[in-house]
Amino acid sequence: MEKSNSDIVIKYILGTSDKEELEKAISVLEDSYYNLELRSILFDIWHRNITHEIEEPEPDEFPGILNEIHHKINLEGKTQKKSKVKRLFINVSRIAAILVIGALIGIIAQNYKKAEPVYYTSIAPKGSVSQMVLPDNTMVYLNSGSEIKYSIEGVNKQREIFLKGEAWFQVEENKQKPFVVHTSIYDVNVLGTEFNVKAYPEDDQITTTLEKGSIRITSTDNFKILNNQVLKPGEQLVYNKQNNVIRLREVNTKQFTAWKENKLIFINLSLNELFVLLERKYGVDIEVKDKSILDLHYDGTLKDETIEEIMEILQESLLVHFKIENQKIIITNSN
Fold first, then answer.
1. pLDDT value at position 76?
2. In whole angstroms, what is the distance from residue 149 CA to residue 168 CA?
3. Would the CA dihedral through 193, 168, 205, 272 be positive or negative?
4. Are 216 and 237 in contact (CB under 8 A)?
5. How high is the pLDDT of residue 29?
6. Which of 53, 146, 210, 284 has the fewest CB atoms inside 10 Å of its own CB, making it the most exposed?
7. Cβ 193 vs Cβ 180: under 8 Å
8. Residues of the chain with pLDDT under 70
9. Do the Cβ atoms of 217 and 225 come closer than 8 Å?
């Protein structure tokens, strides 16, 4: 019974060919007609042994396998130097081995190339808060003017979030798939917990506030942390972009997470910071004519008020004057 090309090539690679089989193998390896068939044959060789099934080789095992093929060819060359006919076979075999190795590299590139992670983007437009559930059952609230790019099969098979803006997370625990939030400065690593990250590109600070569980702040290429910071519930990490300083403090977390319930809580908040929050929440522009107003501070809680109602409250309590022109609010000192 005539042997198949697959059997011929396998016997050649294993070094068990007789003269007739060696000639046939070289013919198959040299002939471009068999190119597509050869690719299929070589791919099958990786997935099985001649006598029993073997595990699929990992990509980093291929160099060692290819080295073995090189070694085989070198040994073959040393044992066949005395015969001119055999030397011909050796030379052709070396050419054939190059073809084998080239074909194997092509198969490796096609079939074992690491798949790039797939990322999805979600945006909360200015003036709105978005709520979503990720495919891993993680709950996310996106504050006004924020954006996340996420993947549940990111780098190293971990769950990844790239954040611009502010988001609150309730992470579904999965120890086999760590969850990481990337900011422009540091990474927030977590297994299962509830926390808030505020990282608007235009803000001077990036803050991470932990409500439940445990999170670890780690370095990125942009910023090196000497000691990774592990937060406990009720703690907040603040990074100042201006002086590159990190500080850890205890806070009332509700003050920093109430926005997801459409509520704003202010405790000794400067009007400069307040106006930024109002611009994001209501999607308006606020122009302050007298910059000394920005140094004033305000305490209060806002929930369902309109922007007009909020400005009226500020006007009465802080002695400022406002007027609304289209989507712009102009504020002046009433003194």
1. 47
2. 14
3. negative
4. no
5. 61
6. 53
7. no
8. 1-3, 9, 12-15, 17, 19, 26-115, 335
9. yes
Nearest CA to 143 out of 119, 170, 125 is that of: 125
Per-residue pLDDT, 15: 63
**What residue type is 243 in one-letter code?**
N
Please state, as a whole number, how many other Cβ atoms lie within 10 Å of the Cβ of residue 121.
9
Q: Which residues pair with 329 in a beta bridge?
A: 286, 324
3-class secondary structure per residue, the chain: CCCCHHHHHHHHHHCCCCHHHHHHHHHHHHCHHHHHHHHHHHHHHHHECCCCECCCCCHHHHHHHHHHHHHHHHHHHHHCCCCHHHHHHHHHHHHHHHHHHHHHHHHHHHHCCCCCCCCEEEEECCCCCEEEECCCCCEEEECCCEEEEEECCCHHHCEEEEEEEEEEEECCCCCCCCEEEECCCCEEEECCCEEEEEECCCCCEEEEEEEECCEEEECCCCCCCCCCEEECCCEEEEEECCCCEEEEEECCCHHHHHHHHCCEEEEEEEHHHHHHHHHHHHCCEEEECCHHHHHCEEEEEECCCCHHHHHHHHHHHHCEEEEEECCEEEEEECC
In this prediction, residue 115 carries a pLDDT of 65
Residue entry with tokens 């046939």:
24
List, in order of start, the domains of the chain with CATH numbers: 5-111 (no CATH), 120-257 (2.60.120.1440), 263-333 (3.55.50.30)
